[in-house]
Each structure stands twice: as structure tokens, then as C-alpha cells.
Amino acid sequence: MKVGIVGGGQLGRMLALAGIPLGMRFRFLEPSMSCPAAALGEVIGTPYDDPEGLVRFAQNLSVATYEFENVPTATVEFLQQSLGVHPGAKSLQIAQDRIQEKHFFKECGLGVQAFHAVGSSADLPRALEAVGPVGVLKTRRLGYDGKGQRVIRNGDSLESAWIALGKVPCIYEAFVEFEREVSIIGVRTRVGGKPQVAFYELCQNEHVSGILHQTVVPTPEGDRLTALAREQAHAVMERLDHVGVLTIEFFAHGDTLTANEMAPRVHNSGHWTIEGAQTSQFENHLRAIAGLPLGSTALRAPCVMTNIVGTLPTTATVLSQPNAHLHLYGKAPRAGRKLGHITLVG
Ligand code: AMP
């Protein structure tokens, strides 16, 4: 089976690492030929929406998926004409726009904080009135790892922040005084037309400067919110008729969850599943999109996953801890760049 992946970053690389033992082969659509996934399959080195590149990419594929949510919709539409693309266009379209995402969460019964769209300077006073003077202004599209957002504290100018973000369409949302951040990773497939759904342990996440720093599983606070997070993710996946992995990030306070965002893909907060779960998120995503039965998501052992950002550690030092598992993505060091991760298995 040949699987096409739009994007050739570390998620594509880890998907291929999980799929090769199942007999899958991989092709990536990625403008940079020296991408992290290049070691594991063929790379079509054109822009994501290049018509000629798309034709070469789609040839003889059994199924296609993507490893980031900013894939142009036209790319997915083109691929869908000749092969199955999972997750489908609806999951992708909602995840690409923070306003649509918030409305969709509300429809599915998830809690969201106050928010208001900012599309022109006339929206600024309305947004301030609806949300209040303390919030976060974020670009509606193309934000990642805390990029494209500005925190607004009492007295800060929302207008200056909007200008600084380039006056692009934005969302202004209330700042959430959360106790902790958690994420739930679900996977859904259809085997013989019948949906099959599974969830991983709830992950507890710590961000530094908007970038995930560490994930701890199981959560030190125990299981209180797991059932609620799973129920909510289930509602979202059913409504989307989602196929593949879906991740939802939440702010947790007391017994409540506020949904922050969703990703229709494998997620950084699920990297621990490579060593810590019976079946990794990467393998289960591939099983799901290939219409194969899902593997057990049960926890094998407690894990702490730490991202390697900006500079590389000394391999021998990391490996001097016998329970440390090092994953390097083959990327050149640069400030703020995710270069790898380490999972400590307890
Ligand atoms: P995001 O790109 O939405 O995932 O935001 C990156 C990180 O910024 C989150 O994981 C939080 O740590 C923080 N953050 C984002 N939005 C808010 C908010 N409305 N209130 C408080 N913290 C936030």
C-alpha cells in the first residue's frame, strides 16, 4: 500500500516510521527536498498547490493524508477527485479557521470562552466590548506554535496589536486563567461501514512561549476530566464523520474544560504514544485512513515527553538515562524550532 502525505515534516517522518513495519510505502508532497521525511520515502519537491506536482504525487497512491492543517483546500479537492483523502475536507476546513472552529465547538456542546471576529477597524470596539480588556488577539488562519498572536492586557491597545499582526482577519478571545492545559487524542475509522473510535490517556501539557515544552501522562491530577474530554472529542468526531486521528487542546479549570483548538492530525502532545501506548498515534492514524482495525490505545507506562527546541542536546548524555528515548527530526538548529523530543518512560 502506498500512502501519500502532504507535508514532509517530523509528523510525516514519524508516520512513515510507524507505517513501514505494516508494509506501507510513502510519498511526500513537500517543497523542501531535504525535509525530515525525506529519509523515509519519495519526495515530490513542488509547492503544495502546484498542478503538475499534484498529478505526480497522486499517481498510484492507495490513500492520502496530511501532516499539517494549513494545506490549501484546493490541494485536498484535487486529490479527492482520484483517491481517498483522510481526514476529510470538513475536518480540515474547520481546523483552518479559528472562528469557524469556535462556532463548531459550541454546536458540539463544548465550552468556549467569549470571542469576537476582527475583520476591520470597525470591529475593534465591538470586540473589546464583547470580550473585555484582557484577551488574546490571534490570526484566524495560519497560526502555529504561538505565532500570529498577541496577548492584550488591561490598557493595551487592541488596534496596535491588530496592526502588528498585519491587519489580517483575526479572532479576539478572552484570556483564560487556566489551572492547566490538557489535550485528548482520539482516533476514528470505519471498518465495514461501522465506526470504530478509541482515545488515548488525557495528556497534560506545559507550553513555553506558545510552544509545547512538556507532556505528562497520566495527568498528575488523575482522571477527573478524562471522561468529559473523551465525550466532547467523540461528539466532534461524529459530527465530522472524521477518519484518522483528531486532537483537541483544552484549558482546564476546576471541573470544566474550555476548548482551545483542534487539529485533524497526529499531535505533538501524543508523541509519548510511540513508547507509552500499545499502539502509537502514528500507527493508529495510518490504520484508520487505510480502513484497518485500530490497535489498542492502552497506556503501557507513565511517560514524560520533552521537546527539543532551538539547540540539540548531546546524544550520549540523553542516552545515559536508560529509560530515555531520543527522537531527532534531522532539522538544522534554529531558535524556536522543534528539533526533536525525548520521552522518559517510567
Ligand atoms: P494556541 O496557538 O491557540 O494553541 O496558543 C498557544 C498557547 O498560548 C496555548 O497553549 C496557551 O498556553 C496560550 N494561550 C492561547 N490562547 C489563550 C487564551 N485565550 N488564554 C490564555 N492562554 C492562551
Written account of the structure:
The chain has 346 residues and is α+β, with helices and mostly antiparallel strands. The chain folds into three domains: 2-85, 3-Layer(aba) Sandwich (Rossmann fold), CATH 3.40.50; 114-174, ATP-grasp fold, A domain (Dna Ligase, domain 1, 2-Layer Sandwich); 180-345, D-amino Acid Aminotransferase, Chain A, domain 1 (2-Layer Sandwich). The protein contains eleven helices and 17 strands. The protein has helices spanning 10-19, 51-58, 73-80, 89-95, 98-107, 123-131, 158-164, 226-240, 273-276, 281-289, 315-319, and strands at residues 2-6, 25-29, 42-44, 63-66, 115-118, 135-139, 149-152, 170-174, 180-191, 194-199, 203-208, 211-217, 244-253, 256-263, 303-309, 324-328, 338-345. The strands form three sheets. Strands 9, 10, 11, 12, 13, 14, 15, 16 and 17 form a nine-stranded antiparallel β-sheet that branches. A four-stranded parallel β-sheet has the order 3-2-1-4. It has a four-stranded antiparallel β-sheet with strand order 5-8-6-7, with helices on both faces. Strand 13 and strand 14 form a beta hairpin. The protein is globular. The structure holds adenosine monophosphate. Adenosine monophosphate binds at residues 136, 143, 146, 173, 175-176, 181, 207, 210, 249, 260-261.
Q: What structural keywords apply?
A:
alpha+beta; 11 helices; Dna Ligase, domain 1; Rossmann fold; D-amino Acid Aminotransferase, Chain A, domain 1; 4-stranded parallel β-sheet; 3 domains; binds adenosine monophosphate
The number of strands is 17
What are the segments in which pLDDT stays under 50 over at least 5 consecutive residues?
none
Bound molecules: adenosine monophosphate
Summarize the helix and strand pattern as letters: EHEEHEHHHEHEEHEEEEEHEEHHEHEE
